[in-house]
Amino acid sequence: MTQPTVSIVVVSRNRAALLRRCMMGLSQLLYPEYEIVVVSDPAGLEALADYAGKIKTVAFHTPNISEARNLGIAQASGEVIAFIDDDAVPEPTWLTELVKGFDLGDVAAVGGYVRGRNGISFQWKAGSVDQTGLRAEIDGPEVPFVPNLPEGQTAKLEGTNMVVRRDALSALGGFDPAFHYYLDETDLCLRLAEAGYAIAFAPTAEVHHGFAANATRSAIRAPTSLFQMGASKAVFLRKHTSSAELETILAAYAQVQRRRLLGYLVHGMIEPRDVGRLLQTLHKGFEEGRHRALTSHSLTIEPPMFLPFQTTATGRSVLLKGRTWQRGKLRHRARELRAEGAIVTIFLFGPSFRRHHVRFEAPGVWVQSGGLWGRSDRSQGPVLSKSFHSRVRHELKRCSAQRAIFDVYP
Predict the structure, then answer these.
(1) What confidence score (pLDDT) does residue 407 get?
(2) Which of 16, 56, 281, 282 is buried most deeply by CB count within 10 Å?
(3) Does residue 248 sit in helix, strand or coil?
(4) Crossing angle, helix 227-240 and helix 272-291, to 10 degrees?
C-alpha cells in the first residue's frame, strides 16, 4: 500500500516546555509526507513561534481534550490523522510503522505501543476493553495485527499513540465532547467497532510517554482530583451500558479507585486525609456525569490545504557510546551531528548496577544512561555483560530498529 499522507494532532494546555520537546521529536520523523496541527493555549503557541508557517495551529484554552482534538481534526488535511500527547515523544520510525497497520485490509484505526517514564518499560501494549470501560491486555505478535477478540470485547487504543482514517472520524463525528478528560479514545474505539470498522495494532510504532503533571495529577503522578475521571466514567456507562447496571458498576469502580488511592498512600505519595477527599471528588464527578448533556456526534471537516512539514532528519541515525565520564565530549559531538540533521543516540554506561533510563533531551538527542551491569528491561534481572562492548550490542539490539541506527561511533 502507498504510504498515506498523515496529519499529526497534538493537544496541549499549560505545558509549553513539554510541547516544545514533543515538537523536537516530531521534527525528526522519518516519513515522506506529514503535517503537524497543534491545538494549544497561548503560552504553548508562543513557545512554538519559530515554527510559524511550518505547522498549523489552533488557539484553545478550554480544559476539554475531546473538543480540542476535534478542532485539530477540522484543520487536518491528511488521509489519516495521528494523535500524540504533548508529554510524549515519538521514535523516528513511529509514523512509518504505525501506518503499516492499514496494509492489513479494511482497517480504520491503528494503535502503537507506549513506553513509560524510564523510556524502556512498556506503559501500554495491545489491549481490549468491554462496555464498562474495563481494559485487558492482549498477547499479540511483534508485527501489525488485527486482534481476534471474544464477543463483548473491542480493541482499545491509547490517545497518545494512534492513527485513524479521516473519513472514519468524519463519519463518526470525531471525539465526543462529553468526555472532557479520560475515556475519550475508549468511547471512540467502541463507536468504531459498533459501526463495523476494524482496529489494528502496530507493535513497533513506539512513543515515549512521561505522564506529566496536569490538572488531575501531580509531578509524581499522585492524583489531585478524580472529578473528571468520575464524570467521564458515568458518561461512558450511560452511553454503552444499560441504566439498570449504572449504579452497580459505578460502585465497583469507586472500590477500585479506593484501592488505588491506598496504594499511593502506602508509597507515601498522598496523605491519609487525601483518600477521603479524593473519593469525594470522584463521587462529585459521578453526579456530574449522570446529568452531563449527551449530544449527537457531528463534525464538519473542511480543512485548508495540506501543509507538509520538512523533517530535520536526513535519514542518518548515529549511535555514540562511551563511559559516564565521557558525557561532556559525547554530548558536544551529539550537538554537532544533530545540527547536520542526524538522529543521535548516546549510550553512557558506568561501572555499576544502576538501572537504565532513556531520555530525549535538547537539542533532540536520545540518551540512555545506566550501569554496565544494571537492568534496562525491568522484567529481567541484571544484565551481567562480560564487557562494555557486549552491553552496547545488547542495548543496540533493543532500540536500533525503532531509531533506524546504522552508524556506530567510535
Answers:
(1) 80
(2) 282
(3) helix
(4) 40
**How many alpha carbons fall within 13 Å on the CB side of residue 108?**
19
Euclidean distance between CA atoms 288 and 280, whole angstroms: 12
Q: How many CA atoms lie within 13 A of 246 on its CB side?
A: 19
| 3-state SS class at 11 | strand
Cα dihedral 137, 138, 143, 148 in deg (nearest 10):
-150
Cβ-in-10-Å burial (0-12, 13-18, 19+) of 325 comes to: exposed
Residues 202/98, Cβ–Cβ less than 8 Å? yes
292, three cell numbers: 452531563
**C-alpha to C-alpha distance for 326 and 319, rounded to whole angstroms:** 14
Please answer whether residues 28 and 313 qualify as being in contact, where contact means their C-beta atoms are separated by less than 8 angstroms.
yes
DSSP 314: -
Residue type, 195: A
Range with lowest mean pLDDT among 88-92, 108-112, 392-396: 392-396
pLDDT grade, residue 384 (50/70/90)?
low
- Amino acid identity for residue 310 in this structure: Q
Question: pTM for the whole thing?
Answer: 0.94
Query: Nearest to residue 98, comparing CAs of 157, 179, 22?
Result: 157
On whether the CB atoms of residues 270 and 329 are closer than 8 A, the answer is no
With a CB cutoff of 8 Å and minimum separation 6, the contacts of 203 are: 112, 113, 125, 126, 140, 141, 142, 143, 144
Per-residue model confidence as pLDDT tens digits over 333-343? 999 999 999 99
Bridge-based pairing state of the strands 34-40 and 56-59: parallel
Name the phi and psi angles at 99, rounded to 5.
-75, -10
Q: What angle do CA 311, 33, 93 make, to 5 degrees?
A: 65
In single-letter form, the type of residue at position 119 comes to G
d(CA 183, CA 165): 20
pLDDT for position 302:
76
DSSP string, 138-164: ----SS-B-----TT-EEE--TTSEEE
C-alpha cell at 98: 504505525
**Phi-psi group of 241: left, alpha or beta (phi > 0 → left; psi -120 to 50 → alpha; rest → beta):** beta
Q: What is the pLDDT of residues 226-251, one digit of tens each?
A: 999 999 999 999 999 999 999 999 99
Question: Dihedral, CA atoms, 121, 123, 126, 131, nearest 10 degrees?
Answer: 160
Tell me the backbone φ, ψ of residue 53, rounded to 5 degrees.
Answer: 85, -10
> Distances from the Cα of 129 to the Cαs of 6, 79, 152, 197, in angstroms?
27, 27, 8, 16
Residue with grid cell 484553545, as numbered in its chain: 60
